[in-house]
Amino acid sequence: MNFLSFLISGVSLGGIYALIALGYTMVYGIAKMLNFAHGDVIMIGGYMAYTLCSTMGMNPMIGVIGSVAVCTLLGVTIERFAYKPLRTAAPLAVLITAIGVSYLLQNLALLIFGSAAKSFTSVVSIKGISLFDGELVVSGETLVTIVVSVVIMIALTLFVNKTKPGRAMRAVSEDKGAAQLMGVNVNATIALTFAIGSALAAVAGLLLCSSYPSLSPYTGAMPGIKAFTAAVFGGIGSIPGAMIGGILLGIIENLSKGYISTELSDAIVFSILIIILLVKPTGILGKKISEKV
Amino acid sequence: MSLLEIKNLGVMFGGLRAVDNFSLTLEKGDLYGLIGPNGAGKTTVFNLITGVYKPTSGTFFLDGKELKGKTPEQISKAGIARTFQNIRLFNNLSVLDNVKLGLHNRMKYSTLEGVLRLPKFFKKEKEMDEEAMKLLKVFSLEEEADVQAGSLPYGKQRKLEIARALATDPKLLLLDEPAAGMNPSETQELMDTIRFVRSEFSMTILLIEHDMKLVSGICEKVTVLNFGTELTKGETSKVLNDPEVIKAYLGD
What we know:
The complex is a heterodimer of chains A (293) and B (252).
Chain A: H1 2-31, H2 38-55, H3 60-83, H4 91-113, E1 118-119, E2 129-131, E3 136-138, H5 140-162, H6 164-174, H7 176-181, H8 186-211, E4 214-215, H9 221-234, H10 239-259, H11 265-279
Antiparallel strand pairs in A: 1-4, 2-3
Helix pairs in contact in A: 1-5, 1-8, 1-9, 1-10, 2-3, 2-4, 2-8, 2-9, 3-8, 5-6, 5-8, 6-8, 9-10, 9-11, 10-11
Chain B: E1 4-13, E2 16-26, E3 31-35, H1 42-49, E4 57-62, E5 65-66, H2 72-78, E6 80-82, H3 95-102, H4 111-115, H5 119-138, H6 154-167, E7 172-176, H7 184-200, E8 204-208, H8 212-218, E9 221-226, E10 229-235, H9 236-240, H10 243-250
Parallel strand pairs in B: 3-8, 3-9, 6-7, 7-8
Antiparallel strand pairs in B: 1-2, 1-4, 4-5, 9-10
Helix pairs in contact in B: 3-5, 3-6, 5-6
């Protein structure tokens, strides 16, 4: 029964990683850059909901909507002012800028909200369920996290594969120049990708803070790095890869916490990443690119 | 009014004049060839009039509308479509999706309607499917609609690129070495396809080609470029027998 309980909370944690990893992988696929500020968008989303619900006492639903809206706007703004001017610059310059934006967001939060961790009130009001005569208890947060992340992943897959903006995203990720010559607005498509990625990060942030209710300016950093790991694990640039990578990472982390050691769980997670990359450098679903000769 | 009017177009890369003082006028329905030795600047002309490069001098008009300085996306909307010397299909997208991407600006629904899957989304996507299948049928590619574009054989990839370009509903179609890498019978088939496209869609076509059999077979007129400038222009048969042109291709 312990195993089942670890597994379920692992899937729930993995769902959160997957939602964050989707933002990394979509942005990488389309703009060919690693947006290291992505994790900090999660934290901003958390503070937004905290301000709306705990400080101003509004309904949790308004907290969710407000936080998603602010993060979407934030993602588009970051892209517009920090990354767009560097569209033709060397990849290293963009990478350093992303790290800079990450520190900027963390320090802004430090300035506004202070360094002390806030206790986050869960936005989930559903009661947990108890199975097998109380031997297995699944919290409402865990249930909601699993359901929400699965629904979002299905919706996103449909959006990317079946709609016109999704088709434009796939085309731009493959050949920006050709897509533009077919009349696709590349800048708008990249902005849309950042908007979707940041909205997903906001949702992930709210679910994360609801399950682990402590909010500090550094809350987003570790999940951000882990989700990035998940995206690489699944094959960076691949949307199904980010989903599988995220969920697997969550399960591995929780099982190693449960059976091996809580302190060592992160080390185990990252060791597995290293092993996977040694065996399959492109990640689980990554495509092998063979040079034409 | 002429369909395409290029006036003294030029571009410099550093100190190099890649194209200089290039002028060309096309009437509606023309099938015109742009030829010249390798490195003469033919593809650069295409890149200039599709907005990939910004001209440093001169200007050009499509249907009387000045397009100099516009982005590739705006020029695509204005009605110039092209294919590429080295095929640039979206290899991981299906054949059908490649053509539907060409339809991108012709079928409108908002992102929100796509996300919420409102009735307009289904209606427009269905229209796009029908329109794309119609185009694929013209090029006998309808059987391969769901195949990944990258796994098509070479000749069919060339055809698909033309179908994708036509999907943008252009007034002017630019073909960059359409016969490159084709054997004589494939080239023959391609010539029929180009003639067919011209009559079926009453299309104006400007093409770059090294295969002189194709050029003399379908182009009424040609311009010869050499070192970025126009060497001569006129009726294809006369130009191809011009001693200056032969010298440019073969050297002294």
